[in-house]
Amino acid sequence: SCKMSVEEEVDGNKILAEALVAQGLKYVFGIVGIPVIELSMALQQAGLHFVGMRNEQAACYAAQAIGYLTKRPGVCLVVSGPGLLHTLGGMANAQINCWPLLVIGGSCAQDHEGIGGFQECPQVDLARPYCKYSARPAGLTLIPTHVEKAVRMSVYGRPGVSYLDFPANLLAQQVASSKVVQTAICPEPPLTWPDPALVSEAAKLIRTARRPLVIVGKGAAYAGAEVAVRDLVRAFELPVLSTPMGKGVVDDDDVHCVSSARTTALQYADTILLLGARLNWILHFGRPPRFDPRVRIIQVDICAEELHNSVPAKVAVHADIGVFVRQLIEQLSSQAWCFRVMSPWWGQLNSKSDENKAVVMNMAQDTRVPLNYYTVFHCIQETIPKDCIIVSEGANTMDIGRTMLLNRLPKHRLDAGTFGTMGVGLGFAIAAALWCQDHAPDKRTICVEGDSAFGFSGMEIETMFRYKLPIIIIIVNNNGIYSGFDEETFKSIRKEGKVTKVQKFVVTAHRQYRHDTTVINDIGNKDTANTAVTNNTVSKDTVNTPFINDIASKAKKRSTAEKYIIA
Ligand code: ADP
Ligand code: MG
Asked: Domain named Thiamine pyrophosphate enzyme TPP-binding: which ranges (predicted)?
C-alpha cells in the first residue's frame, strides 16, 4: 500500500547500462572481473549484447570495428589497472584510424586511492593521450550526461575514442531514480556542406586535367559515399585508386579501378581528387619521387585540421564526402563534360595495368614448393564468395593479399590500418561476424592471417568457438617473424664474428590446427619447406589447388563453430 510513496532506487551499474542503451549502443566487448562484474550483468539486463573476450586488447579491436561498420561506437568494458592498460594499444589504433570507440573502465574505489588500492591506477590520465574525451563522472546522477558526451565526441567531427572511468564505489552507490539527470539520444552527426565556390574550383581543376586521378580512402567508406563516388567515376570516366581500406567503395573489378597501375597512376597524375584519405605513409606523403611535385590536389576531409597536411592542397574542401561528390557531379554534368576513355592517360594506365597483371598471373600460376603468396591468394580469390568481409593482417600476407583479394563492397576489408597494428585480425573478425548476423546473415567473414599476426591474438579463436561465429581463418604460415640466422650461421657468427648467410629465424614452431582453421604451410620459406607436417595441416605435397578448393566449399557453406577446435 505504501509502494507508491517509496521511490525506486537505482545503482551506478543500472544507470550506466541504461544510458548506453539510450544512446543507441548495442555491443559490448570485454573481460569481466572486479569491479565490473555486476555492471556486465546490468548491461545484459538492459539488452546490450555482451561478448566476453580473452584479452582486453582484442576486445578493444572488436569494439572499434563495430564502430567503423555501424558509425556508432562499440563499447569495450574492462577492469581496473592492467585491464585498462591492455586496451591502450587498441585505443591508439582506433584513434589513429579515426574510428569511433567507447572504452569503459572500472577503477578502484575512491577511498582506496592513494593508499595502494587494488589495481589502483591513474586511468583517466593514462587514457587521455589516446582519446578525444577522457573523464570520470563526478557522481552517479551525472552518468548519462557523460555517456552522451562520450558518444558524441566519438562520432562527431573526426571520429575517435572516448574513455569513461567508473570507480567501484560509484557503480555500487544507490540513488533515487528521479535524481538521475536524463539525457536525450545524441543525434547523428551533422553533415558538413562544402563552400559552393570550392566545388566550382574543384570542377574546374578536374575539367582542365590531362591526367586526373581519384583516390578513395577509408574516410569515403566511413562516410557511406560509395554510390556518389561510383556515379562520379563512371559518369565522367575517371581513373580511381583505393587505399587498402578504401577498397570496395568502388568495386576492385570496376574498369575505372587502376590499382594494377598504382605506381604509374600516383607518379604521373596531374590532378588528384583525394576523398577521405590522408597523405601519410600509405600514400607516400603525396610527395616526390612517388608523386609529381606539380600535382594539383583537391582534398576533401571532414577534419579541417587535416587539410594541407604534408602537401598544400590546390583546393581544400572541408566537407562530408558524400555531399561534396554529389555537388561535384552536378557541376560537371552541367558542363556536359567527360574525361574520355580514349585519352592518352587511360591508354598509359591500361597498358601498364595489363603488363602488371600478366606478371602477377605468371607468378600465380607457379606451384613450385615453397609455394609463393600469389599462387595461394589467387586460389583463395577464385574460391571465396565475392561479397565476403575480408580481414587481413601480417606482413607479406597483408600486402600481397591487398592486391590479390578483391573487394566488391565498401567496409569489407579490415586490416592493420593506419597504425599498422598486428593482432587486430581476430577481434575485427568477431565484430564483422556479429555485424553479419544482424545485417546480412549469409555473408561470410574470412580472416586471412600471417602466422605471426595470428599469434598476437590467437586465443580469440576460443571466443569465436564459444559464440559459434561462422568465421573462416586461413593462416599463411611461413613459420616465423621476419628473418634472422639459422643455427649454423648463428654459430659461425659467434665463432668468426661475421655474417655469412642470412636466413629465416625460426620463431614459431609448426603447430597443428584442425578443421576450419586452415593452415597453408611453408609459404616462401625454403628452410622449412621440408619440415614434416602432420594431421590436418598442409604439407608441401598438399599445398595445391585441390586443397585450397576445400576452403571454397567451407566458405560457401555456413560453417558452424563446432568446427573451431584447436589442437
Ligand atoms: P586511408 O587509410 O584509407 O588512407 P585515412 O584514415 O588516412 O584513410 O583518412 C581518412 C580521412 O577521412 C580522415 O582524414 C578523416 O578525417 C576523413 N573522413 C572521415 N569521415 C569523413 C566524411 N564523412 N567526410 C569526409 N572526410 C571524412
Ligand atoms: Mg609469417
From this structure: 394-480
Helices and strands (DSSP H and E) totals, the chain:
20, 20
**Separation of 481 CA from ligand 2 center, angstroms?**
5
| Full-model pTM | 0.90
Query: What is the pLDDT at residue 470?
Result: 86
User: C-alpha grid cell for residue 549?
Assistant: 578448393
How far from 456 is each of 56, 423, 451, 469, 518, CA to CA, in Å?
Answer: 12, 5, 9, 20, 17
- The confidence band for 339, taking pLDDT boundaries of 50, 70 and 90, is confident
> C-alpha cell of 405?
583479394
Residue 35: asked if its preceding bond is cis (omega within 30°), the reply is yes
Range list of β-strands (E), 228-320: 240-242, 271-275, 296-301, 315-318
Asked whether the beta carbons of 146 and 103 are under 8 A apart, the reply is: no
C-alpha cell at 159: 571520429
Dihedral, 275, 277, 280, 286 alpha carbons, nearest 10: -20
Q: Tell me, using a 6 A CB cutoff, whether residue 243 lines ligand 1.
A: yes
Instruction: Give the long-range contacts of residues 93-96, CB within 8 A, separation 24 or more.
Output: 93/60, 93/61, 93/64, 93/417, 93/419, 93/421, 93/424, 94/60, 94/64, 94/67, 94/160, 94/161, 95/130, 95/131, 95/132, 95/160, 95/161, 96/417, 96/418, 96/419
Q: How far is the CA of 129 from the centre of ligand 2 (A)?
A: 32
- In this predicted structure, what is the pLDDT of residue 505? 33
The string of pLDDT tens digits covering residues 144-174 is 999 999 999 999 999 999 999 999 999 999 9
Q: For 349-406, what is each residue's pLDDT tens digit?
A: 999 999 999 999 999 988 777 778 898 898 889 888 899 999 999 988 999 999 999 9
Ligand 1 atom 5, closest CA: 277
Hey, which of 298-307, 529-538, 548-557 has the most confident mean pLDDT?
298-307
Q: Which residue, judged by its Cα, is nearest atom 18 of ligand 1? A: 219
146 in contact with ligand 1, CB cutoff 6 A? no
In contact, 519 and 498? CB cutoff 8 Å: no
3-state secondary structure of 543: coil
For residues 411 and 220, the answer to whether their CB atoms sit within 8 Å is no
pLDDT exceeds 60 at position 507: no
What's the gap in Å between 510 CA and the centre of ligand 2? Answer: 11
User: Residue 245 and residue 402: Cα distance in Å, rounded?
Assistant: 9
Residue 560 scores a pLDDT above 90: no
Task: Compute, in angstroms, the gap from residue 461 CA to the centroid of ligand 2.
Answer: 18
**Ligand approaching nearest to the C-alpha of 222:** 1
3-state secondary structure 327-389: HHHHHHHHCCCCCCCCCHHHHHHHHHHHHHHHHHHHHHCCCCCCCCHHHHHHHHHHHCCCCCE
* The pLDDT of residue 534: 29
| ipTM rounded to 2 decimals | 0.94
